[in-house]
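We emphasize that the prediction below concerns an isolated chain of 283 residues; any contacts that depend on oligomerization or on bound cofactors are therefore not represented. The input was used exactly as deposited, without trimming of termini.
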Amino acid sequence: MEQDTLKILFFGDITGRQGRNALKSFLASSDLNNTFVIVNIENASHGFGLTKKNYNDLTLAGVNCFTSGNHIWDKKDIYEYINDAANLVRPINYPVGTPGKGSQVFEFNGFKIGIINVLGRVFMPPMDSPWQVVIEEINKLKNENVEHIFIDFHAEATAEKICFSKFLANEFNTEEYALVKGFFGTHTHVQTADEKIINGMAYITDAGFCGSVDSVIGMEYSTSLKRLSTSLPERYEIAESGLAQLNGVEVLIDRTKATQIKRINILVDNNEQERKADLDSGG
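Result of the prediction step, given as a token string:
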């Protein structure tokens, strides 16, 4: 039976085992009926990239779509499975011929949903213009009768995120109908407090991250301190403290627009959860 409304859960960068376990325990205890779950996973496997094992594990946990970013290539086995990973998108503005897809379409409870992943260019590696590529992709999805588009904009600069989101909300949305129903910033790992509805589009500058609370954006304080204070090369290590934070947004949409957005910012005691369930012991 088709629904007239749909809940979207979007979670910011999953970082290491602590982030994965916090997400899995949250999903296991949630009513996911009529809920589409999107998760940014570019840091999910020991802080860098995504292994096939973790991709499969999080799919079984209830994730419907995985978005990513510039770290998606950090685990070598990504090249072995990305072309066959139906639920995974990499940034769309990599050069033509890059493995994987920059967007995916999902049929879910009568909603035809398009997910686009894109990298910003300010303070980021050189990349094709997101403006041109994303506009072309939105028009392509529109011609394929996709009615609900969500964008993970993986970028450093807040101004770039804000400007691009306003442009898309004005270009593709009207008072009566919003084609782009969600625009979620990722990459900085710090959740912003500016969630809002812009012309029928749910927006937040950065959804935050899911990982160890006692950390520097998911990484151990000691290695981060040495690298940042000395400017000498130092391998980042994932933080392993049991208390994790879970950052994201919950969005409600109907057939025409996003009607509500609220932040998710909760603490999960992974040590307590591990006493209750057999959670992930990997990196």
